[in-house]
């Protein structure tokens, strides 16, 4: 499939480059026999009033469509966006469950929300205080 996608992309690039070259050459052709007024701000080659022939326009549109098809063919497989599909794949994969880093081929993408990094863990602080005060750290006196 990669060879087909590369061939389609190459074909689209060739058509697009030919359409661009044709549009450039057409813009250099004199469009009228009378000269432009001297007060014109744009040179005649950049005049937006010059219309492209229909074949150049169609070739440009065709090349863009071919390039879009080539990009779609060469793209990677889409990943599931539904939670139940992701969770099902995670449950079936033992090595993915062992990965704890987020975004490294597995793991829980919501682990950062569960950990609440940057917030004080009040329960752990209370437990540590109980252990400290129960072991006679200061004899229970403040």
From TrEMBL:
GO terms for cellular component: EMC complex. It is a multi-pass membrane protein. Pfam families: MMgT (PF10270). The keyword Cell division does not apply. Keywords: Membrane, Signal, Transmembrane, Transmembrane helix. It is found in: Endomembrane system. Belongs to the membrane magnesium transporter (TC 1.A.67) family. This is Magnesium transporter. It comes from Meristemomyces frigidus. The lineage of its organism: Eukaryota, Fungi, Dikarya, Ascomycota, Pezizomycotina.
